[in-house]
Amino acid sequence: MIYKIFIAVFTISFSHVVAQLEVNTVSQIDNDLENLLISELFGCSVEINNIEYIGHSEALGTFNYTPNSMCSGNFGLDRGVLMTTGMINYAVGPNNNGDDGEEWNVEYEDAFFHNYLIEHQVITPSVDLFDACVLEFDISSTSSLSIDFEVIFGSEEYTEWMSPFYADAFAFFVTEINGDIDPYFNENPINIMETDDILNVPDLISCEIENKPISAWTIRPESDVFGMPGLNECLYIDNENGAFCDAIGYDGYTIPMLFNLSLEPSANYHIKMVIIDGVADYFAGLDSGVFIKNSNLSEGVIADALLPLFDINIAGDTVSFNQTNVLANGIDYTWDFNGDGIVDSNEINPIYIFDSPGNYTVNLDYIDVCTGIVSSVSYDIIIGGTYSLLCESSPLISVFPNPAQDNLYISLVNLTSESLIQICDLSGRVVYQNVTGNNFHSIDLTSLLSGIYYVVIDNELNNINYIEKLLIF
């Protein structure tokens, strides 16, 4: 029979952390499962509808991976969605059990997928499909969209249990529905994640790639059980007993395989992501899992183009930040002005009054609401600083032109030692610094924003401390 769970709610129901791999199961909830698909796999420029989940509540979730000494190699993905035939916590190392698995004993009836696996010699006709983890949904985009996915398939079937008689397998089927806009997807479902579709294969030279669906039988080393040669072996990493990465619980897994999905504007697609346990006779138990990441989404930081830029104004004990560029919609701001870890403001352009003078580091976290990615930037400011009171002149120093635009020139007359030249913004932050022993110095200003700055020149041997206000336009 077909075992269906229709998603209605979303919660994080389990968290398991060992070393650097963290996994979280996702309960069956519709609204936030949509958020999960958008934030982890497809981004915010798509519309997702008609979500259906088939599988156990502990078979689906998210993962986060941070490299450390438990990996002699590199796992390759840092976050994404994890789908398994058993429990996602079995993906977490240390890998001290070669036969981890959870037998749900739930048969999955899908004639199309079953015949597809037989035709591609992943399983034999006598094999039935069990313990499926399936995500199905409709998706559309108002503009052309190209999404790159990185995929790692791991399994406890490696290496002693891999065979066509009980091969676990994964597919990512795409079909166009309700129209004929995209001719590539307008007929039968197409699995966009076969080995011939891997975009990073040209970098691999250790074996030929034979086109197959992803499974423990079609990407494998030489079989100890059947004496069969390896297949697509250069895609495989041996992790028996945690030899490659003890933070990962599977005995073997693939390298990160890069795939692409391109969506035509206004076309409607149906996507079916499915991983199953192939079972001959009676035994379904050893787990496999597929890690999927959208590699177009930022990895830990928001793109540099979205770095917030501010005019910073300080008047006595008060500082104000005024953003000079426009970030994408859906960014939340949290400001900590005095370094105590407490959020002082959530405004885009905040004003803050300090209790006492001194040097402060203002920390800003800006959060992409779509992906949940948090990026940080800090600003060093001086409250009660003396720059505005120390404007001096010197017959030995000439700074020109002022106001300046692209270049600034500094003439240092009859100085016999090196001079430290700095340009500081109104907060006291150094935006340019150089040490020169020459009597003439040129500075490229094109990387600096328009505004008011200070030129600071120190030469201890000649007893010079020179400060001049500079306007850049």
Give a written overview of the molecule.
This protein has 473 residues and is mostly beta strands. It folds into three domains: 12-294, no CATH class; 304-383, Immunoglobulin-like, CATH 2.60.40; 387-472, Sandwich (Immunoglobulin-like), CATH 2.60.40.3080. Helix content is 5%, strand content 41%. It is built from two helices and 28 strands. Strands 1, 2, 4, 5, 7, 11, 12, 13 and 15 form a nine-stranded antiparallel sheet that branches. A hairpin with a 4-residue loop joins β24 and β25. The N and C termini lie far apart (72 Å). The model is unreliable at 1-19, 299-305 and 386-391 (pLDDT under 50).
Secondary structure blueprint with pairings:
Layout: E1 12-18, E2 21-26, H1 30-42, E3 46-54, E4 60-65, E5 79-84, H2 111-119, E6 128-141, E7 145-155, E8 169-177, E9 190-191, E10 214-215, E11 236-238, E12 252-254, E13 257-263, E14 268-279, E15 288-294, E16 310-315, E17 318-323, E18 331-336, E19 351-353, E20 358-368, E21 374-383, E22 397-400, E23 407-412, E24 419-425, E25 430-436, E26 440-444, E27 451-459, E28 464-472
